[in-house]
C-alpha cells in the first residue's frame, strides 16, 4: 500500500510519538475501570457504540448508543471535567445534546469543549468534488455544515476552494452523494459493517487538530457539530477555530446559494427533532 504525502507525514509523527520516552500506553476494561481510564485526561475521544447496519438510520442507533454516551460523559464529568471531548458516537445530532445535558447536570458544562466529530463528511465532500474537478482531494476544501446524517449534512458547494462552479446536475449529484456517503458504505459492505477505516482517519485527523490547538498552534479550523448561535438551533455544525479552550470561535455560514438556503431549511427541520430527542433522553 502506498501512502499519500499527508498520510506519510502523519505516520511519521505517530512513529515519533511511539518512540518518545514519555509515551505511556495503558489498557482499561469495562465500567469498573472507567474512572482510572479518564482521570487526568486533556482530550477524550468517544467512538463507543454499535455500528449502523443495512436498513438502519443513525436514529435507529439512538436507544443503544444514548445510554453508552451518558455513562461515559458521567465519568468525564467526575474524573476530567475540563477535558476537550470529541464525540463520534452516532447519532451525533442527538448524542452531543445528550453529553451537554449530562455535563449541565454535573455543573461542568463548557460548550467550547464539547465537539461533535463531523469531519468525515468534509473528507468525503473533498474527495467527491475532487473527482468531478479532476484534481487532488488534498487541494480541495468544502465546508460542510448542519449536522451528521442525511439531509442535515449540507455541503456548501458555492464556497469550495479552489473557487469553481458546478452545473445544476453536478450540484444535485454531489450533494446527494455527500449526504448518503455513509449509507453507500453500509450497503457496499452488505451487512458486514459500516465506515471504519475512513472514520478512524477522520477521528485521528480531528483529534490531531485538537491536540495542536491545545498546544497553542494558530489558525486551526475544522468543521464540527457544536453549541452554536449561527442559527436559531442550540447546536449546529460549521467551521470552528480550535485552540487551548476547544472551539474558541464559531464562524458564520457566509453567503449561501438559493439551493443551499433551501437545503438549510430542510436540515434545520430534521435537526431540531434530533436535538430535542437527545435533550429529552436525559431530562426524562
From TrEMBL:
InterPro entries documented for this protein: L-lactate/malate_DH, Lactate/malate_DH_C, Lactate/malate_DH_N, Lactate_DH/Glyco_Ohase_4_C, Malate_DH_AS, Malate_DH_type1, NAD(P)-bd_dom_sf
Gene Ontology CC terms: chloroplast; peroxisome
Catalytic activity field: (S)-malate + NAD(+) = oxaloacetate + NADH + H(+)
Pfam families attached to this UniProt entry: Ldh_1_C, Ldh_1_N
GO molecular function, one term: L-malate dehydrogenase (NAD+) activity
Biological-process GO terms, alphabetical: glyoxylate cycle; malate metabolic process; tricarboxylic acid cycle
Binding-site residues for NAD(+), renumbered to this chain: 65, 88-90, 199
UniProt: substrate binding residues: 52, 58, 90, 124
Key words of the record: Glyoxylate bypass, NAD, Oxidoreductase, Peroxisome, Tricarboxylic acid cycle
Lactate/malate dehydrogenase N-terminal domain residues: 22-116
Subcellular location: Peroxisome
List of catalytic residues: 148 (proton acceptor)
The protein's Enzyme Commission number: 1.1.1.37
Limits of the Lactate/malate dehydrogenase C-terminal domain: 118-281
Protein family membership: Belongs to the LDH/MDH superfamily. MDH type 1 family.
Quaternary context: Homodimer.
Cited NCBIfam families: MDH_euk_gproteo
Name of this protein: Malate dehydrogenase
Organism this protein belongs to: Elaeis guineensis var. tenera (Oil palm)
Classification of source organism: Eukaryota, Viridiplantae, Streptophyta, Embryophyta, Tracheophyta
Gene from which this protein is expressed: LOC105055912
Amino acid at each position: 500500500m502506498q501512502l499519500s504525502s499527508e498520510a506519510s507525514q502523519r505516520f511519521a509523527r505517530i512513529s515519533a510519538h511511539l518512540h518518545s520516552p514519555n509515551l505511556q500506553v495503558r489498557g482499561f476494561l469495562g465500567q469498573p475501570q472507567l474512572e482510572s481510564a479518564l482521570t487526568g485526561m486533556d482530550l477524550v475521544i468517544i467512538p463507543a457504540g454499535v455500528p449502523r447496519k443495512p436498513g438502519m438510520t443513525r436514529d435507529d442507533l439512538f436507544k443503544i448508543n444514548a445510554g453508552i454516551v451518558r455513562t461515559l460523559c458521567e465519568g468525564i464529568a467526575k474524573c476530567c471535567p475540563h477535558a476537550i471531548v470529541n464525540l463520534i458516537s452516532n447519532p451525533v445530532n442527538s448524542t452531543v445534546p445528550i453529553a451537554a445535558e449530562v455535563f449541565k447536570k454535573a455543573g461542568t458544562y463548557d460548550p467550547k469543549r464539547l465537539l461533535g466529530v463531523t469531519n468525515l463528511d468534509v473528507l468525503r465532500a473533498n474527495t467527491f468534488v475532487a473527482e468531478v474537478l479532476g484534481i487532488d482531494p488534498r487541494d480541495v476544501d468544502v465546508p460542510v455544515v448542519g449536522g451528521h446524517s442525511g439531509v442535515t449534512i449540507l455541503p456548501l458547494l458555492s464556497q469550495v476552494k479552489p473557487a469553481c462552479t458546478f452545473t445544476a446536475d453536478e450540484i444535485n449529484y454531489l450533494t446527494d452523494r455527500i449526504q448518503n456517503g455513509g449509507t453507500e458504505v453500509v450497503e457496499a459492505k452488505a451487512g458486514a459493517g459500516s465506515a471504519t477505516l475512513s472514520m478512524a482517519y477522520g477521528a485521528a485527523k480531528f483529534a490531531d487538530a485538537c491536540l495542536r490547538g491545545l498546544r497553542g498552534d494558530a489558525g486551526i479550523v475544522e468543521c464540527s457539530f457544536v453549541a452554536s448561535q449561527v442559527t436559531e438551533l442550540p447546536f449546529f455544525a460549521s467551521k470552528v477555530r480550535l485552540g487551548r479552550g476547544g472551539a474558541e470561535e464559531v464562524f458564520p455560514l457566509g453567503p449561501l446559494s438559493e439551493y443551499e438556503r433551501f437545503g438549510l431549511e430542510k436540515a434545520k427541520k430534521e435537526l431540531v427533532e434530533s436535538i430535542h430527542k437527545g435533550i429529552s433522553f436525559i431530562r426524562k
